[in-house]
Amino acid sequence: MRRFLPKTLNQWLLAAIPLVLLLAWLLNHWLLGVAAVLSALCVLAVRNPKFEGNWRRLPWLQKLFPQPAAPAPIQPAPVMPAPPPPPRRIRRHEAGASLAEQMIDQGRVALLLRPQVATSLSAADLEQAQAALDEAMAIVPQGQVAMRSRAFDHADDENPVRAERLIQVEGFFLDRFCVTNHDYEQFVADGGYEQMSLWDESIWPAVLGFVDRSGQPGPRYWENSTYAANLADHPVVGVSWYEACAYARWAGKRLPTDPEWVKAGSWPVFAEGAKPVQRRFPWGDSMDRKRVNVWGSGYVSTVAVHAMPAGASVNGVQQLIGNVWEWTSSTFGAWEPASRKIETALPLKSVRGGAYDTYFDTQSHCQFQSGESPLARKHNIGFRCSLGFCDVIHQIDQAAEDDADTRNTDRLPTATPEEVHA
Amino acid sequence: MRANGLLEMDSYRLAAYTVPCPCYICGGGNNFDAELCRHCHAPMALAHQATSQKIHPRMIAAVGPSGAGKTVYLGMLTDMLSRQDENMQLLARGAFSIRLQQNAMASLGRCEFPHKTPNEPDRWNWVHCQVLRKGQRATELIMPDLAGEALLEEVDHPNSYPVIRQFLSKCSGVMVLVDAPRVESGDHDEDFHTMKLITYLSELSADKKTNWHTRPVALVFSKADQCEHCFDDPQAFARRHTPGLVQQCRERLKRHHFFAVGVAGACGFRSEPFGKVHVPLRIEPRGIVEPFKWLLDELAT
Questions:
Q1: For A213, phi and psi rounded to 5 degrees?
Q2: Is any Cβ of chain A less than 8 angstroms from the Cβ of B268?
Q3: Is the Cβ pair A370, B286 closer than 8 Å?
Q4: Is residue A290 left, alpha or beta, with left meaning phi > 0 and alpha meaning psi from -120 to 50?
C-alpha cells in the first residue's frame, strides 16, 4: 500500500488536483476549479524537459519539483578511474599570450615591453601591450625644467633663494593615474612582500613591519591584506617609500624623479632668449578648487583617481595636484640653497603635489616640495610610477619621433645640465 | 572761536572721564578712550562691543606650557572656521580679532611657525568672535592667545599676571594643549606643567557650583602628526604617557575629554644665526575643530 502513496510534494500536488477539481464541481465553486487547472499547468510546465535548464538555476524549485531520474543505460559502462591528463603541449605562442594577458591585467605592461622580453612576444601581444601602455601612461618629452626653492615665492628678487636651476630631463612615460588600491592588491596577492628581490637589502628587516591593521602584509590602512570595498579606485595610501619602490619594481617601472614630476606638471615652455615659462598648476597659473581635491574643495578624504579630469595636465596626467602627495625617488631639500637647508633626524624623501587635506594653495602647486621619512606610512601619501623611453622597445621609436618634433618646435637648449641663477 | 571750541571739547572729555568704563575681563575702571585696560591690559574694545551690541560674550581659553602650540592652534582654528561655510562658522568682531589669524596664517603659509607670543599682556592678541552653528543660536566668544611662559609664571606665582587669573576665573571652558611628541619621548616636564595648570584651575574658585570641577576641559595633544598613533586613541595615549594627568583629570574635572590635533604634516629644523628653528614642511590640519566643537556642545548643555 505504501508504495502507491505519493513520495514527493510534486506527486502530492498532482494527486491533489483531481480531488480539488472534484470538490469544485461538487461545491459549484468556479474559482477553485480555475486554481486547480492553473496548478496542474504549472506542474506540467516545470516537468517539461524544455524547462530543465531553467529550473536547474533555482535550487528551491529543484527541491519542490525534483528532477525525474534519468533512464538507466542499457549497458552501463564499467567505472574506470579518470586517466591522468596528458602532459600539456603548450605552444610557445599560447603560453606567451596567456601570460601577457595576465601581466597586462596586473598592470605590468612595462615588463612585457622590455627589449629582452618584447622580442619573444607575438605581434598581436606586442600591439596589445603597447595599447595598454598608451592607455596607462602619458608621454613627457625630454627637455629642461627649472627647479626652485621652497621659499621662492616669498623671497625678494635679489634674495639668493630666488635662484633656480635648469635640469635636463630625458623623455619618459608617466602613469596617468596614481596607483590604486586595486592595482596594489595585485602586487600583494602576487606575494610582493615575500619577493625579497623587489626590496632594497638594507630595508629587509623593516619589510616584516609593513603590515596592515590585521597584521597581514599590506598598506597600513588595509585589513586582511585587502582594502575597503568602496576604495578600489582610490589611490593607495599608508605605504612607505620603500613599498612604493617595491611595487614599481614589480610592475617593471620606477618612481619618477623630482624634475620629472615637475616637468610633467608644469610643462615648461622655452621662449627664445627668455626664462622658461612654467605653469604653476597643470591647468594654468591660478588655483581652481573645482579641479582638485585639496582642503576646501568639499571632500574630506581621497577621491577616485579618475574623479577630476578637469585638473589633468597638458598630456593627460590626472591629479598631479591634490588627492594624495606622491613619493618621488629624489631626496628632499635638493633644491634649497645652502643657507636654507632643512635638517631632519633621517634623510627625507621628496613628496609632491599636495593632498586632500593640504591647506594652502602655496603648498599645493607644481613647484612646491615637501618631505617625508621614507619609512613613514601616512594617510595622505600615495605614488605613481614612471618609465624611461629607453626601458621599452618599439615605443621608443614613436616617442623619440614625438620628442624630436617637440624639440624642434620649442627649440629646447642643449642637453647639458646647467645651473642658472635668476 | 578756537578757544571756545577747545573749552567745549575739554568739558566733554572731562564729563566722560568722570564715568569709569569697566574692563570686560577684570572689571577695573578705565577712561572711556583707553585702548587697553590699565589694570589687566585686555583690550577695552571688548567692553565697548559688549555694551554697544548688548551682548555678553562667553570666554574660552587655550592654555598650555610654552611651545605647546597655542598660537598655531588658535590661528588655525579661527581661519578654518572663518573659511568654512557649513555646520559651523566663525565671524570676527572687530579688526583686532583678526590679527591672530592673520599673523598665524602668514607664517604657516610661508612654511614657518609664528613667533613666540611675548609675555607682556599688552602685546597679546585677543579674538572676539561670533560662532554660528546650524540649528543653534549664535554664540559670542572671547579667546585670547595667552603666552605660555606668562601662564606658567602665574601658576607658580599667583597674581603675577592678574589678567590671566581674572580671565581664567571667568572662563566657561578651557582647552589645555599638551605637546604630544615631548610627552611620548618621556619628557615629564610637559606632564608636570599640565598638572600644575589643572591644579591652578581647580583652586581658582571655592564655589562648588561654579568652580572648575563642573566646567568642561578639553585636553588636546598637539603636534600629534609627529606621533600618528595618538590620533587613533588619544585617551589611550594619555593613559600610557601621562598617567598622572589622567588621574588628576579624573578626580578634579567632571567634564573632560582627550583629543589629538596636528597642523604640520612633517617638521624639520633650519639653522639660523640665533639657533635652530623648527619649520613645518607642509600644513595639513587634523582634528582642529573637534575639541572646540566638543567644548561648545558642553557649554550648550
A1: -65, -25
A2: yes
A3: no
A4: alpha
Residue pLDDT tens, chain B, 301 long: 455 665 566 677 777 777 788 999 888 888 888 888 988 888 898 888 888 888 899 999 999 999 999 999 999 999 999 987 778 999 999 899 999 999 999 999 999 999 999 999 989 999 999 999 888 889 999 999 999 999 999 999 998 998 999 999 999 999 999 999 999 998 888 889 999 999 999 888 777 777 788 899 999 999 999 888 899 999 999 999 999 999 999 998 989 999 999 999 999 998 888 888 899 999 999 999 999 999 999 998 8
**pLDDT tens sequence across A360-376:** 999 999 999 999 999 99
Q: For A383-415, what is each residue's pLDDT tens digit?
A: 999 999 988 885 445 555 555 555 444 433 333
- The secondary structure of chain B as a DSSP string is -HHHHHHHHHHHHHHHHHS-EE-TTT--EE-TT-SB-TTT--BTHHHHHHHHTT---EEEEEE-STTSSHHHHHHHHHHHHHH--SSEEEEE-SGGGGHHHHHHHHHHHTT-PPPPPPS-GGG--EEEEEEEETTS--EEEEEE---HHHHHHHHHSTTSSHHHHHHHHH-SEEEEEEEHHHHHTT-HHHHHHHHHHHHHHHHH---TTTSTTSSEEEEEEESGGGSTHHHH-HHHHHHHH-HHHHHHHHHH-SEEEEEE-EEEEEEEEEEETTEEEEEEEEEEEESSHHHHHHHHHHHH-
Q: What DSSP element (H or E) covers A277?
A: none
Say whether B284 and A373 touch across the interface (CB within 8 A). Answer: no
Report yes or no: B232 at the A interface, CB cutoff 8 Å: no
β-strand pairing of A172-175 with A386-388: antiparallel
Instruction: Give φ, ψ of A209 to 5 degrees.
Output: -90, -5
Sign of the CA dihedral running A197, A200, A206, A210: negative
CB spacing of A358 vs B284 below 8 angstroms: yes
End-to-end CA, chain A: 109
Cβ separation of A378 and B108 shorter than 8 Å? no
Here the cell at position B254 is 567632571
Q: Give dist(CA A237, CA B60) in Å, integer.
A: 37
Tell which of A342, A352, A361, A369 to mutate to test the B interface (max B CBs under 10 Å): A342
pLDDT tens string A81-105 = 333 333 333 333 444 456 888 888 8
B190: phi then psi, degrees, rounded to nearest 5: -60, -45
Task: Give ∠ CA B285-A351-A165 in degrees, rounded to 5.
Answer: 120
Q: Can you tell me the distance from the alpha carbon of A279 to that of A284, in angstroms, rounded to the nearest whole number?
A: 6
- Selected for mutation to probe chain A from B87, B101, B284 (highest A CB count within 10 Å) is B284
How much is the ipTM here?
Answer: 0.86
Cross-chain residue pair A360–B268, CB shorter than 8 Å: no
State whether residue A330 is helix, strand or coil: strand
> C-alpha cell of A259?
624634475
Spatial CA neighbour of B261 closest among B133, B74, B101: B74
The span from the CA of A384 to the CA of A371, in Å, is 16
Measured CA to CA in angstroms, residue A293 lies from A178, A289, A301 at distances of: 14, 7, 9
Which of B270, B281, B285 is the closest to A357 by Cβ?
Answer: B285
What is the helix (H) or strand (E) element at residue A21, kind and residue range? helix A9-27
Directed axis angle between helix B243-252 and helix B188-204, to 10°? 10
